[in-house]
């Protein structure tokens, strides 16, 4: 068995990263850099350019290398400036003028200008639906650059929430025009050796092993304070937690099993913080299969899911059952009346019979396939196994197929599945739901399509009036509750395990207005 070497938060142990010296400028006095943070990451990034395709492990690293126009503060639940220092919105919601931060340089020394903003946005628009972040820029006709520090967005239709969309967790990063223009964006070498303007600079990526970053001494924000930031790829959560206990890593991105939280908290030197999220975990139906276009069948499956049992057994009631298609974490946009059907085995069986799926002599009505992809959100595989157990009570046999996250697109494109398990953010703005339900969305794995829902999503982003938007998203949720394209199961909360010698993580109070999710520019040795 090959011995795995770890990177240590206290010092670098023998391994592939020993060759990376502390840069000379780290001791120059310009900024104070001290210590190494090793983050245990469960997913290989595969590719650092998430503007065009989604790579589950990349955002955890990207946020430290790349920058956006604006970012979202998860402590105050507010948007704060990043590359843009201010912005003006025209009354007709069709012109946005961004003033950009002066003196910013790319990590290769080239100046950042409005030309980078223009190229980034217009190239995503050019890619259209093929780009994962197209939904955030689909209303933009063109970008004007009257000077190096001004970018003017001209929209084809009113959009009152473009700032919120730009700050989204899955929003696009500003890319360096001088490295991407004229190239095939998906094949560009910078996708694996990223150049950004963020607090850390890329040093190396060894597939299946680690990503190493060093501090950017010219970063325009506060920090960074570390000599090195390293991401150790540890797909096995048990291995990652053992490394945390041994002091070989300082933070684990994946939530531990909720049943292990009490024991971990008792380990000297380890803290576990619990933070709410806008993440909903779910499984959806494959609408390419005619059988799943029958609403009776979809409602029967939903009625056979006991969310309270799932939340109690898997999460010790530390998360909430998901009763709607949005999230209760954003009360103004959540319609609590647009609920999933209650747990009711008798009614589920009646609907299955009515739909023509009678039990055979062995008690089985049908055999279906559920594909699931382990992620940093704990419980994906465990939820799938519980769904299998619960649906067996109504005669549905579920074959659970666990697939590496990096292969999810390939597996989904085969269209052989019946259920696909997923999880992801639904907020803070309700327009984030478009990822899962809009007909042309690249993340609509179910191929669910309702023209009325598509129209309402357009209407929802065409207003800045919260009362009006509440009504629009309430209508969307009511349609989704009636259509039942997926079965929401859990409103997730993070458990974040880390070594107590580190402070300044993105959920800590001192990060308010200075860091977004998974940014480590404020992390320092306590």
From TrEMBL:
Signal peptide per UniProt: 1-26
Sequence intervals crossing the membrane: none
Highest taxon of source: Bacteria
Gene Ontology biological process: peptide transport
Alphabetical keyword list: Signal
Places the protein is found: Periplasm
InterPro entries given in the database record: Peptide/Ni-bd, SBP_5, SBP_5_dom
GO cellular component terms, semicolon-separated: ATP-binding cassette (ABC) transporter complex; outer membrane-bounded periplasmic space
Annotated ranges, domain Solute-binding protein family: 79-443
Family, similarity comment: Belongs to the bacterial solute-binding protein 5 family.
Protein name: Solute-binding protein family 5 domain-containing protein
């Amino acid at each position: 068995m090959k011995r795995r070497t770890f990177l240590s938060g206290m010092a670098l142990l023998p391994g592939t990263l020993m060759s990376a010296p502390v840069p000379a400028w780290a001791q120059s006095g310009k900024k104070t850099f001290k210590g190494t943070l090793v983050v245990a990451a469960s997913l290989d990034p595969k590719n650092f350019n998430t503007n065009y395709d989604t790579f589950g492990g990349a955002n955890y690293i990207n946020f430290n290398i790349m920058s956006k126009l604006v970012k979202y503060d998860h402590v105050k639940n507010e948007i704060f400036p990043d590359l843009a220092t201010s912005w003006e919105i025209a009354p007709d919601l069709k012109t946005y003028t961004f003033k950009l931060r002066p003196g910013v340089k790319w990590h290769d020394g080239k100046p950042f200008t409005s030309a980078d903003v223009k190229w980034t946005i217009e190239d995503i628009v050019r890619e259209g639906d093929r780009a994962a972040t197209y939904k955030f820029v689909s209303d933009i006709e063109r970008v004007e650059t009257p000077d190096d520090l001004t970018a003017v967005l001209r929209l084809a239709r009113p959009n009152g929430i473009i700032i919120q969309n730009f700050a989204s967790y899955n929003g696009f990063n500003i890319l360096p025009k001088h490295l991407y223009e004229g190239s095939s964006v998906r094949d560009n070498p910078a996708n694996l050796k990223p150049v950004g303007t963020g607090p850390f600079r890329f040093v190396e990526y060894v597939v299946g092993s680690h990503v190493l970053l060093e501090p950017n001494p010219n970063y325009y924000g506060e920090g960074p304070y570390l000599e090195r930031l390293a991401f150790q790829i540890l797909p096995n959560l048990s291995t990652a937690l053992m490394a945390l206990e041994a002091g070989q890593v300082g933070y684990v991105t994946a939530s531990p099993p909720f049943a292990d939280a009490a024991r971990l908290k008792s380990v000297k030197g380890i803290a576990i913080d619990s933070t709410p999220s806008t993440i909903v975990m779910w499984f959806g139906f494959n609408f390419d299969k005619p059988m799943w276009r029958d609403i009776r069948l979809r409602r029967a499956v939903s009625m056979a899911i006991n969310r309270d049992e799932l939340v109690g057994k898997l999460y010790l009631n530390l998360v909430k059952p998901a009763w709607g298609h949005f999230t209760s974490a954003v009360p103004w946009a959540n319609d609590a009346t647009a609920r999933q059907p209650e747990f009711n085995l008798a009614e589920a069986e009646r609907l299955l019979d009515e739909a023509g799926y009678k039990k055979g002599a062995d008690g089985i009505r049908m055999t279906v396939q559920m594909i699931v992809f382990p992620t940093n959100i704990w419980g994906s595989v465990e939820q799938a196994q519980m769904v299998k157990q619960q649906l067996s009570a109504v005669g549905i046999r579920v074959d659970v197929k666990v697939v590496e996250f990096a292969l999810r697109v390939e597996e989904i494109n085969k269209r052989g599945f019946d259920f696909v398990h997923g999880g992801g953010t639904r907020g803070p703005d309700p327009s984030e739901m478009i990822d899962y339900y809009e007909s042309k969305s690249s993340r609509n794995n179910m191929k669910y399509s309702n023209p009325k829902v598509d129209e309402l999503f357009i209407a929802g982003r065409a207003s800045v009036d919260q009362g009006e938007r509440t009504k629009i998203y309430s209508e969307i949720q009511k349609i989704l509750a009636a259509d039942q394209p997926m079965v929401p199961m859990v409103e997730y909360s993070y458990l974040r395990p880390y070594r107590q010698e580190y402070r300044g993580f993105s959920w800590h109070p001192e990060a308010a207005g200075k860091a977004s999710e998974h940014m480590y520019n404020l992390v320092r040795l306590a």
